[in-house]
Every structure is written in C-alpha cells, then in structure tokens.
Amino acid sequence: MQDNQYSLSADQIRVVATIAVIVLHVSASGVSRLPLDSGAWWLANLLDSFSRVSIPLFVMLSGALLLHPPLDSVANFYRKRVARIAVPLLLWSLFYSGWTLLKGEVKHQPVPPSQLLDNLLGGMPYFHLWYLFMLVGLYAATPLIRWLMMLLKAAYAPSPSFYLATAVVASTLYTFGFQWFGDGWPWPLWFVGYIPLFMLGAAMWGRPSNQGRLALLAAFVLMVVIIARLAHIQLSEYPALGAIYSYQYLSLPVLAASVCAWYLFKRPHQKLAAYTRFLAPYCFGIYLVHPIFLDISQMLLAKLMFDDIAKMLVQLPLVFGLSLLTCMTYRHTSSKYLKASLTAQTPH
To answer: Per the database record, which ranges form the Acyltransferase domain (predicted)?
Structure first.
C-alpha cells in the first residue's frame, strides 16, 4: 500500500527531527568544550544551530496528529497516552538512573542516590528525557486545548497566521524573560511554553506554504546563521549570561527556522518515501537509546588521534547507525520470540 500524503509528510518530519536531535547532542558538547572561534567550534556551533528545530518539529507534529482527529472519549485518549508515554518514561528513567550510576563508577566519580532522586523529581533523570516529562503535561492538557481550538474555530475561524502570531507573541515574551522562564519552573509546568507550537502545528498542517522550496531553504539557512552568530556574540561578549538565548527552543530565531523546516518537509518527497517508511518506526527508539552510544563513542573517540572536526563527523553517523541497529535488533528479536510464543500456545 502506498503512503498517503498525510503519513508520508508526518514521517518525513519525524525522521528529520530525530536526526536533528542526534546532530544536536553530538555538536552541543563541542560548543561547550572546544576553544571559541576555532574551526571545530564554528562547525559545532553551526550544526547545533541547524538542529535546534528538532524539539519544535516534534511538538508541532504532535499537535498536528492529536488536535485534528476527533476524540472518541477523553478516557480512551488518556489510556492510550499512558501506554505510549508514561510506561516508557518510567522504564527508561529507571534505566538511565542505572546508567548514570555505572558511568560514575567507570569514571571513578560515584553518584549519590540522592542525586538520582533529585534528577527524577526534577524531570531529568537523563538529559534527553526532559522532553518526555514535558510531553506528559502537553498530553494531559490536549483535550482542553482541542476544546479551545474548537471554540475559536466556531467563533472566529482563525487562519494559521493567528496561531503563528500567538507563537510569535509567546516567543517574544520568552525572549524578554527567558532566564526567568528557565530551569526554575517545575517540570509539570514545562509544557506551558510549548502550547503555542502545539497549536501552530495543527493549524498549519492542512495549509501549504506559498513559498517555493528554494525560498524556504534560503530562509532556513539564514535563520541558522543568525542563531549561530547570536550564540557567538553571547559566548564571546556576555559569557556570564549562562544559557545561550538563541539556542533556546522557544526563541524567536528558532521559531522562524522551525516554521521554514516544517513547510520544507511537510511537502511529500516521493523519492525519499522508501527511506522514510523504513526509518520512521524506529524514531522513538532511536531518541531513547542514542545517549548510550553518544557516551560510549565520546569515550572511545577521545583516545584516538583524530582532530575535533573528524571526531564530530565520525560520531554523527556512528551514533545514529548504532542506535538504529539496536532498535532493529530489538524489534526483530522481540517479534521473533513473540511469534514463537504465540505459535507454541496455538492448539494444533
């Protein structure tokens, strides 16, 4: 059966966002540890800036998939979300707590159990799991957000421009107070800032862009350059500010880059359909397991006599490939044993 326009577009965005997450996590360590203004640092900065659209794309795609189809019941919606997000979140939080302990022992830097508990209660048992904790809040608010969008549609029938303007206003508020909106918020409230992106994804889903792909690509590249340049200015002239504003997922330049990337990949690319269809089922698994191979590859590559640029360029496909291979192996093995179990239980 051929992909329809909806599923192919959704899967393209999902695959691109997943690849961008790996690019982000590989390059972020380079931005923090490499000498400022070195060639390797600029490569890491540009890759980091390019990949900042990853989380916004995930959030917008979730909005497109969850805010459009009619709900059979709120209870069924929550029941499905628990199976899809709450159970994996619990299991992987426990796994990465153990991984943190193991890393501490290997590095001879033991991690106290109290720190693991603080990480868990703070919504970050490992650096990438914050997104799943944020998603819990977003899913919990989804029925209410759907109801609000239905009221707006009945009363005003707002265009996607209305939701884009709402996202811009929210991003502007975040811009003026991003330090206040940062780590001080408890994780159950993290989702609040992402509601405009969530709604924007649903609003833009059925509306094609009037701009051609070349114009969208040029605008996206421009935003990446702006993000990278702002990051350089802050680190070189205002290093005491801490969190880099232009890297924030809710910043104005990242919002603009995300909208460009959304329209670029929302249009089905039929030549990539086979690759997209193959990779899409593994995206969630890749997101969950890739930090393991990120940690391992960093330790191994640190011992090799490569320059920093070569290490990054090797690490990117290495982390992605090993994460994909792990997911494929797990899926094949679990399916094989499940089939064998069902066969054994089937009366002849």
So the answer is: 10-329
Q: What pLDDT sits at residue 163? A: 92
Q: Please report where in the chains the tokens 């914050």 appear, as a residue.
A: 130
Based on the structure, what is the number of domains in the chain? Answer: 1
Q: How many CB atoms lie within 10 A of CB 75?
A: 9
Residues with Cβ within 8 Å of residue 91, at least 6 apart in sequence: none
Q: pTM score, two decimals?
A: 0.91
Q: What is the pLDDT of residue 180?
A: 63
Whether residue 346 lies inside any domain: the answer is no
Rounded to whole angstroms, what are the CA distances from 58 to 69, 178, 333? 18, 21, 28
Query: Domain for residue 193, yes or no?
Result: yes
190: in domain: yes
Measuring CA to CA, how many Å separate 235 from each of 182, 224, 232? 18, 17, 5
347 found inside a domain: no
Position 145 scores a pLDDT of 94
Whats the size of the chain, residue-wise? Answer: 348
Task: Please list the ranges in the chain whose pLDDT falls under 70.
Answer: 1-6, 177-184, 335-348
pLDDT, residue 243, reads 79
Q: Give the C-alpha separation, 23 to 289, whole Å.
A: 14
